[in-house]
Amino acid sequence: MFRRRRPAIQIKTAEQVELMRAAGLLVGRTLEVLRGAVKPGVTTLDLDTVAEQYIRDHGGVPSFKGYHGFTGTICASVNEEIVHGIPRADKVLRDGDVVSIDCGAIVEGWHGDSAITVPVGEITEEQATLLEVTEASLWHGLAAGLVGARLTDMSNAVETYVRERGAYGIVEGYGGHGIGTEMHMDPLIPNHGAAGHGPVLEAGMCFAVEPMVNLGTKETVELDDGWTVVTADGRHSAHFEHTFAVTPAGPRVLTALDEGREWFAKLGLDASGGDAPS
């Protein structure tokens, strides 16, 4: 019997990680500009135009535009749309919506990839809690990205955090991934599953972790446009993502402006492993 070989995971040098940090910072800053641009009456195509101009003006190239025929610089997914929403002139944001903005950029051949979900005007407490739970689950997943850990330790950290906070639907079939000289590389990182499986993490590996969490069930449907993924029950979804590098000192979050220090401290997580002292 032959055992299936696991795909090789790209290992970056310290210099290459710095190039990924440059791409990650550009993505992070673009998302902050877009966060400020979200308001009722804005279209998702308006946001896409802002993103492309900002990325190109700051020396980057949009990762998404032209990727397998995708037409946008960002994915803009509103309410029941989970991921891969195509920016459109007729998709107008309204008070009470939530919009997931997924953005990628290339700098000197290296990729950064990150996503946020932003409230439009006033949203309900249920929606706000969904966003809080999903974003915090991302940071628990990132905190598990330690030298010597297993790949699914990150998956399990995301799932455990979400399960402890309610009957949410954790999307399956879509998840995080390796990243580096390409936007999507092996391996896939599910947002669910038992810990202790998969490759051992080594310094120089880089991954994107991206939980997608629904108010209703985990079931999804892909629309006829071949891209947009929506909840099967029509309930709202949230999506957050960061790119990070595995380092001997702990996960270095390349798309976070402060490399993750504020969020790790906020959640009482020690980025070098374990719980931070209280």
Sequence-ordered SSE layout with sheet pairings:
Blueprint: H1 14-37, H2 44-57, E1 61-62, E2 74-78, E3 81-83, E4 98-107, E5 110-119, H3 125-143, H4 151-163, E6 169-170, E7 176-178, E8 185-189, E9 206-209, E10 212-214, E11 220-222, E12 229-231, E13 237-239, E14 242-245, E15 252-253, H5 261-266
Antiparallel strand pairs: 1-4, 2-4, 3-12, 4-5, 6-10, 7-8, 7-9, 9-14, 10-13, 11-12, 14-15
Description:
The chain is of the alpha+beta class and 278 residues long. It has one domain (14-266): Creatinase/methionine aminopeptidase superfamily (Creatine Amidinohydrolase). Helices cover 27% and strands 22% of the residues. The strands form four sheets. It has a five-stranded antiparallel β-sheet. Strands 1, 2, 4 and 5 form a four-stranded antiparallel β-sheet that branches. A hairpin with a 2-residue loop joins strand 4 and strand 5 (110-119). The longest helix has 24 residues, at 14-37. The termini are far apart.
- Overall average pLDDT: 94
Oligomer: single chain
Please give the alpha-carbon distance between the first and last residues: 51 Å
Alpha-beta content class: alpha+beta
Order of neighbouring strands in the sheet with most strands:
8-7-9-14-15
Reported CATH architecture? Alpha-Beta Complex
Rg over alpha carbons: 18 Å
Overall structural domain count: 1
Order of helices and strands: HHEEEEEHHEEEEEEEEEEH
- Biggest pleated-sheet summary: 5 strands, antiparallel
What proportion of the residues is helical, as a percent range?
Answer: 25-40%
Our estimate of the beta-strand percent is 15-25%
CATH class: Alpha Beta
What would the CATH topology be?
Answer: Creatine Amidinohydrolase
Shape: globular
